[in-house]
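Aim 2 progress update. The chain analyzed this quarter is reproduced below.
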Amino acid sequence: MGEFPSVTAFEIRLHKADGTVAIIMTVNAFGAGDAEIQAVKMLKDDLAYAIIWDGLREVATVHRDKPN
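Predicted C-alpha cells:
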C-alpha cells in the first residue's frame, strides 16, 4: 500500500486592494502549491491578493488576475 502525502497547515491572509487584511484563515494543504490553489479560489469581490504563510515563513503571494 502506498504512502499518504503529508498535509501541512498554512495560514492564508486575504487582502483588499488598499492593503488592509480582510480575512485570516488556516487551511490544510498538500504543500505550498496546493495552498496557493486554494487561495486563488478565494479571491473574489473586493479581495485583491493573498499571502500564504507556513508558520513565520512567507511562502507565496497570489493576485487576482481580473475583477470578478
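The chain has one domain: 8-60. Residues 1 and 18 are 49 Å apart (CA to CA). These observations will guide the mutagenesis experiments scheduled for the next reporting period.
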